[in-house]
Amino acid sequence: MALSTCLAGAGQLSDNSAGWRRYASYLDWLQEDKPTQKQMAFDRMSRGWAIGTRGFQQALVADEKTQRTVLKLTFEEAKAARKLRWESGFKCCLKALHKKPADAAKDPKTAAWKIGVAAYMKQHLMTSNAWLAEQLHMGVPSAVSRYTSEAISGRRAPAKG
Fold first, then answer.
1. Residue 103 falls within a domain, yes or no?
2. Is residue 120 part of a domain?
């Protein structure tokens, strides 16, 4: 939606700093005014953490400003945003290693590249063991934890890629 549409909907406000301040005040008021929210059907407007295509949502997650707003999301909204971040990181890892998701299904669950991806994603994206176990076909979540701990501590050969 264009900013001019939002400003017009808030009372034909001007597209300048004074108009933007008045618009911010309008949003603050609207946030507190439950009868007006009901009249404007807010419950039908606000579904999910971001309305748009999957690509749009991934772009939001990648944006630094959006990262700061993630702290204000509900549990379910944050969970969805986290999953998108994990998916994006997983795709980047596969690309860097010249792997495809099908490789994860056919290679052994203890393949060095899988353990390397899992360890990287756990350390850098705080990816859950359960999600990694599913995506990388590494068995149960506790196995992912064990394999990555061994790799990080040096008790397992490093991944080659």
1. no
2. no
Looking at the domain assignment, is residue 91 inside a domain? no
Cα(2)–Cα(24) distance, rounded to whole angstroms?
A: 16
Digit-coded pLDDT (tens) for 47-60? 566 667 778 777 77
Task: Give yes or no for a contact between 131 and 90, defined as CB atoms under 8 angstroms apart.
Answer: no
Q: How many CA atoms lie less than 13 Å away from 95 in the CB half-sphere?
A: 6
- CA dist list (Å): 131 to 23, 70, 82, 135: 41, 20, 11, 6
Structural domain of 12: 1-46
Distance from C-alpha of 137 to C-alpha of 79, rounded to nearest angstrom? 21
Count of domains for the chain: 1
Would you say 47 and 76 are in contact if contact means Cβ atoms under 8 Å apart?
Answer: no
Q: What is the pLDDT of residue 103?
A: 95
pTM: 0.54
Q: Does the residue 150 lie in any domain?
A: no
pLDDT tier, 13 (very low <50, low <70, confident <90, very high otherwise): confident
The candidate with the shortest Cα–Cα distance to 123, out of 148, 99, 101, is: 148
